[in-house]
Amino acid sequence: MKLQSNIPLAKVYKREVDFSSDLAGNLSALGVGLSEDAEVEALVATRRADIVATEDGGALVVENDFGRADWHQTQLPPESDLE
């Protein structure tokens, strides 16, 4: 019995920002612990990240692979301010 199926994201979400918004609202399901105050299309240094969530213990920056990646393997400068 097959209970799960693979559905391409593009069939569920028409735009990357829709996927990012849904993911940002459900970060707790990923078990990453930074589920509050998630911001979509947030400015990080000189770039925009799909999702940025901050908490007292740190920050989570997500660049999803919905379509073409904007800034894979980009290293943020040490002075980057996530707040």
Overview of the molecule:
- 14% of the residues are buried.
- With 83 residues, the protein is an alpha+beta fold.
- Strand 1 and strand 2 form a beta hairpin.
- The chain is 16% helix and 24% strand.
- It has a three-stranded antiparallel β-sheet with strand order 1-2-3.
- The protein contains two helices and three strands.
- The protein is flat, with a radius of gyration of 14 Å.
- The longest helix has 9 residues, at 16-24.
In short:
The chain contains 2 helices and 3 strands, in the order ααβββ. It is an alpha+beta fold and 83 residues long.
Helix and strand content put the structural class at alpha+beta
Q: Sketch the topology as an H/E string, one letter per element.
A: HHEEE
Helix content: 10-25%
The fraction of residues assigned to DSSP E strands is 15-25%
Low-confidence stretches: none
Biggest sheet features: 3 strands, antiparallel
Average residue-wise pLDDT: 76
* Overall spatial form: flat
DSSP helical segment count: 2
Cross-sheet strand order for the largest sheet: 1-2-3
Which radius of gyration do the C-alpha atoms yield? 14 Å
Number of strands: 3
Distance from N terminus to C terminus (CA atoms, Å) equals: 48 Å
